[in-house]
Amino acid sequence: MSGLRVYSTSVTGSREIKSQQSEVTRILDGKRIQYQLVDISQDNALRDEMRALAGNPKATPPQIVNGDQYCGVWAQGLGWGSVVGGPQ
């Protein structure tokens, strides 16, 4: 796969996950960075794919992947240059 992908879920009871997902997409949209939103709640295989790419069997969304390269989990203060190859 190519391009920036953000693994997320549309089904969660966690306010923290919802907030982190919203923040990631808000920033990417604000910077007009194209990405594919992958909803892991639609298929367990997508959840397994996200966890395999993250190298963590317990990884939760949002997770960010650029091409086949795992870029990281969202965290406040993350330098976006490390995620999308742009300025920080």
UniProtKB/TrEMBL annotation:
Superkingdom, natural source: Eukaryota
Entry keyword Glycoprotein: yes
Record keywords: Acetylation, Cell membrane, Cell projection, Cytoplasm, Glycoprotein, Membrane, Nucleus
One GO cellular component term noted in the UniProt record for this chain: ruffle membrane
Localization per record: Cell projection, Ruffle membrane; Cytoplasm, Cytosol; Nucleus
InterPro entries: Glut_rich_SH3-bd, SH3BGR, Thioredoxin-like_sf
A Pfam family assignment: SH3BGR
Family listed: Belongs to the SH3BGR family.
Function: Could act as a modulator of glutaredoxin biological activity. May play a role in cytoskeleton organization.
Protein name per its UniProtKB record: SH3 domain-binding glutamic acid-rich-like protein 3
Gene: SH3BGRL3
